[in-house]
Amino acid sequence: MRVWRQGLVIVALAGAAPAGAAPHDAPFAVTIDVDVGHDEGPVAQEWRFFGADEPNYATMKDGRTTLATLGALAPDRVYFRAHNLLTSGDGTPALKWGSTGVYREDAQGRPVYDWTIVDRIFDTYRARGVKPYVELGFMPEAMSTKPRPYQHDWRPGSGELRTGWAYPPRDYARWEELIHQWVRHCVERYGRSEVASWYFETWNEANLPQYYWGGTREEFFRLHDAAVRGVRRALPEARVGGPDSAGAGDDFLAAFMAHARAAGTPTDFLSFHAKGQPKVIEGAGGSHVRMGLNTHLKAADDEFAAIAADPVFRTKPIVIGESDPEGCAACQGPANAYRNGTMYSSYTAASFPRLRALAQRRGLTLEGVLTWAFEFEDQAPFAGFRQLTSGGIDLPVINTFKLFAKMGGRYVSARSDHQVPLDSALNDGVRGGADVGTVATRDGTRVAVMVWHYHDDDVAGPAAAVRLRLRDLPRAYAGGATLTQYRIDEGHANSFAAWQKMGSPLAPSDAQRSALKRAAALDPIAPAERLAVRRGAGEIAFTLPRQGVSLLVLTPARASDDAR
């Protein structure tokens, strides 16, 4: 439907009703204003970073498929971080475990290097347009100060995680030489300029001694310094940083910066982790998951504050090396029930712009936000892990990244009268009214507007009746516009909902898998619409269900017609 009014065109776009919403839950009105002429800076595409505990999944069938999907989002600009790249073993993966067997010692105690497995992992990345974000860890068995037991027996809910792989080296010179030899080998295999485009950091969350580090803080700093020396000896221009510490409200990051400054350790970027904390809420009507967006944002902002307070390091680029709704991708359970469906996709859409806004408010450069989610090979369908795909089938959350990938160029002004203010989200999350937020970009004459409808509580609620007003569109729109809308919700780009409608089969047939892949696809929700534009302005009306994420893409009609 089109309605002419004061030179604007209103286009009503259909939207699915929110899952579980009662007929009397009438949509609430939302107004969004986008000023395409108001430039708000370049789009850095911070979302281009991903990672996983289990490095060997990358070379397996569904791992290869998932990497190909990620690499296609932004070829040669997507990065992948993995634990266990230096861990001893034959490459057999398990939950929170992997190995490459790069280092052992012969009978005379001389180092023996074997790059076969780690080469296979990095080759798999590069063949699919993905670059390594190299985590220098963990400790090879022959080098560990406490090698027995070596492989952990952790499993969801039980087992010891910190075993021989987590301890300092018995010889820091051998550790440095291992790193040197590995980086030198990578330069020979992939080329100097290629390896110089990677990120190198040491270890993982060394400020959590109960999990990932069996030494002291000072021993970690020594480990890091030796690793950086090894990298830079092989490639002086390599990009090195760290410490990829957990955002735990401690002084670890500040101490790391002080140490690096005093020791003169090269530091090209800073990295830390930030996580949320969902929980199960019991009520008269049953239980539901409540997300912890505020916990996630506070963890990030605490670390931003530490960096901003440092006169030397405040200018360094920052990568949030793990940024997730909670802290254990391999754990299952009721509080993690958000993962398969649209709660995860809408949370992702709502959190990324706020992380960027928190960094900007402190005058910092946020270069990357790394999602610690990948895939878990040969598990039951939709098993409840924090992952991007299940059995080679895209989950709703990965489609949010596909929407992000369609946004480039420059940010432009976008304001919603129902977007929860930054400080309210930081302090309290989204516990009252729903968060209907927006971000918009302009890339040449192409305009993209993302709108999300998020709430911390995973319960049904009314849809948003959105009135999107655009102004100062480029002159190329004088002949009109073509509008395409993409959507992630209960009925669009949602393999999990389709699987549930099938009866949740544990072994989907070929026909069912094909249907699930079709349901997962991020396709336009309707044919492209030809719009009239008057005096550089236009107006669009559409309904966005709770937990829905939409991307509206406008191009000049003449350009679209010429392309056809």
TrEMBL record:
Signal peptide region: 1-21
Keywords: Glycosidase, Hydrolase, Signal
Family: Belongs to the glycosyl hydrolase 39 family.
Domain of life: Bacteria
InterPro entries per the UniProt record, alphabetical: Carboh/pur_kinase_PfkB_CS, GH, GH39_cat, Glyco_hydro_39, Glycosyl_Hydrolase_39
Source organism (scientific name): Sphingomonas citri
Lineage, highest ranks first: Bacteria, Pseudomonadati, Pseudomonadota, Alphaproteobacteria, Sphingomonadales
Name of the protein: Beta-xylosidase
SUPFAM superfamilies, alphabetized: (Trans)glycosidases, Glycosyl hydrolase domain
Domain Glycosyl hydrolases family 39 N-terminal catalytic: 31-530
